[in-house]
Amino acid sequence: MLVVFGGAYQGKLDYVYNRFSKNQDDVFDCNEDTPTLDLSKKIINKLHLFVLANIKNGSDPVKLLAGLLPQLEDKVIICDDISSGVVPLDPVSRKWRESTGYSL
User: Distances in Å between the alpha carbon of 101 and those of 24, 44, 61, 79?
Assistant: First the structure.
């Protein structure tokens, strides 16, 4: 597994396309309303939104990802760094930030 982690709009996906000769057909884009991953794709983009979807769904994203580690070992994971700035007052946003930054 390779994790590409950084600020929003920093060219992470373009870097992965160029580095690994991949294109949009190889990418699963996570969103904040879908708490599942398409593991048939080589690239998992926007993992931070998968984390948020699971928090909203009442699931523990850290436990879910820990259980998926064997299936993720050949994937490129792209995740925005959402840890900068003021700690959110909203409990969902705070849990999202903490869970996204948790390392397995």
Answer: 26, 17, 11, 10
Asked if residue 27 lies in contact with residue 100, where contact means CB atoms within 8 angstroms, the answer is: no
From first to last of the 104 residues of the chain, give the pLDDT tens digit: 999 999 899 999 999 999 999 999 999 999 999 999 999 999 999 999 999 999 999 999 999 999 999 999 999 999 999 877 777 778 898 888 888 877 65
Q: What secondary structure letter does DSSP report for 39?
A: T
pTM of the model: 0.85
- The conformation of residue 24, written as its DSSP 8-state character, comes to G
- Are the beta carbons of 92 and 74 closer than 8 angstroms? no
Continuous segment of H or E residues that includes residue 36: none
Residue 5, token pair as written in the block: 């982690």
Residue among 14, 67, 84 nearest 45 (CA) = 14
